[in-house]
Amino acid sequence: MTAAAAVWWALGAAATAVLASRLCGPIQRGWGALARRREARLRAEALLLACLSPEQRAQYLSRRSRGRFEVTTAAGQRYRVCPGGVVRLDPRGAAYCIEAASPVPVADELLATKLLLETDERRFLATAHRYHYP
Amino acid sequence: MTGTIHIADAGGDTTRTWDTADPATVLEIEEVFREARAAGRLVYRQAGDGRGEQVTLETWDPKEHTELVVAPRLVGG
């Protein structure tokens, strides 16, 4: 090996070492954030499942309507709660868009929507953005 | 009598517990109620039929309502 090649080899090795040390931190932080997000999602889903009625739990877990369940309000109106929205189950059909004001897992959002529908349908209707659902 | 309040937040479910034999823990939960109200969040308890029921600091009975959920504030999407 010539002296010049040895110098280039040493420079390359040094650059690789510096780059690896610089990338290591962000990659580790990224993995940590992903793990925390997954943990939060699991905890939120466990809370949701604990708060659903047996029928709603079965709907939520069924292969056919995975992640969705129905809520009947005190006035007898039926809604389907889905990630990202709510559908009123009557022939006229209407859909509502409602979301958490703060970043939370989807299951927490579904739980908040279920509880609001069950306890205060008027407030739900006043809060959610309604759009036509064919 | 002990109870648990579940706070639906970015962590998914942050829990705080209280024991009616320890008034300090009950005061902490009352503070959670105040913070929730200030943030526009609603607190619920699970009724017997699996339906939710809203609870406020005024209606909360630490001996009776032993499982509470603080829901995130909802807005129109």
Could you state the oligomeric state of the chains shown? heterodimer
Radius of gyration of chain B, taken over Cα atoms and rounded to an integer in Å: 12 Å
Q: What's the story with the biggest beta sheet of chain A?
A: 5 strands, antiparallel
Roughly how many Å apart are the termini of chain B? 40 Å
Number of domains of chain A: 1
Helix content of chain B: 10-25%
Low-confidence regions of chain A: none
Please count the helical segments of chain B.
1
Strand order in the largest sheet of chain A:
1-2-3-4-5
Radius of gyration of chain A: 25 Å
Helix amount of chain A: 55-70%
Q: Which two chains have the most extensive interface, and how many residues on each?
A: A-B, 42 and 25 residues
Strand content of chain A: 15-25%
- Give me the side-by-side strand order of the main sheet of chain B: 2-1-5-3-4
Q: What structural class is derived from the secondary structure elements of chain B?
A: alpha+beta
The succession of helices and strands of chain A, N to C, reads: HHEEEEHHE
Strand content of chain B: 35-45%
Strand-pairing-aware structural class of chain A: alpha+beta
